[in-house]
Amino acid sequence: MTDTELIERLKKLERDNRRFKRLALAGLVLAAAFAAVYATRPVAQTITAHEFDVVDNSGNVRVSMNVVAGAPSIALHGAKGEVWLTILPDWPGITLVNLRGGAGRVQIGVAASGAPCVKLVDAQGDVVAQMAVSASGSPNIQLSDAKGQVHAQMAVSPQGSPSIKIFDAHGFGVDLGSTQTFVPKTGEAQQTSAASIVMFGNDKKHHVIWKAP
Predict the structure, then answer these.
(1) Using CA atoms, how far apart are residues 182 and 189, in angstroms rounded to an integer?
(2) Looking at CB atoms within 10 Å, which of 18, 130, 156, 208 has the fewest?
(3) Total Cβ atoms within 10 A of residue 178
């Protein structure tokens, strides 16, 4: 390699070095400009939409939020689309769903009166057991058949009087504990103690057929 060729190569390296420095400087300026723009860009405080879905890496909807019949609804979904949990649209609460059948089996919520309630539902969608607090503050538990007829009820009155009521399909009933009876001749109401047992007939007046003590 001659001296002339060596000098030409050195000049070429110097030109390339200057060109690289200019490109690097332009890139730094551009990056700084983008950073300044995004740093001062306002962040949206409200997102408005009719429905909001959260999906997993496979694109499956796992959480959905929308409005059903004018009421807000939130649902959690499994990987195959099955519903695990929903917020009820007709009363403030949630429904736990059977993963196999897709039916709501447990309902937890607050009634329109403000009283809390837990309902257990059979495979056909009928409420067969529920635990609640009445508007007067009385806690109670009810067991029903598939037609909605109550057959057993346990409650405590706001005054602290406990009672258990049992009914059959023919209308006969037994009250264990504190209950209220009426004297046929005078119509006077009598409150029994927690140690009493009262059996009622299945007529319209639901008269007492036996009691002790």
Answers:
(1) 4
(2) 18
(3) 21
In total, how many domains does the chain have? 1
Q: Please tell me the distance from the alpha carbon of residue 127 to that of residue 105, in angstroms, as a whole number.
A: 9
Strand partners, 190: 181
pTM of the predicted protein model: 0.60
The range of the structural domain enclosing residue 14 comes to 1-41
**Coil, strand, or helix at residue 38?**
helix
Q: Is 10 part of any domain?
A: yes
Q: Residue 185 domain-assigned?
A: no
Residue 181 sits at the vertex; the CA angle it makes with 178 and 182, to the nearest 5 degrees, is 160
Name the H helices within 109-200.
none
66 falls within a domain:
no
The verdict on residue 12 lying in a domain is yes
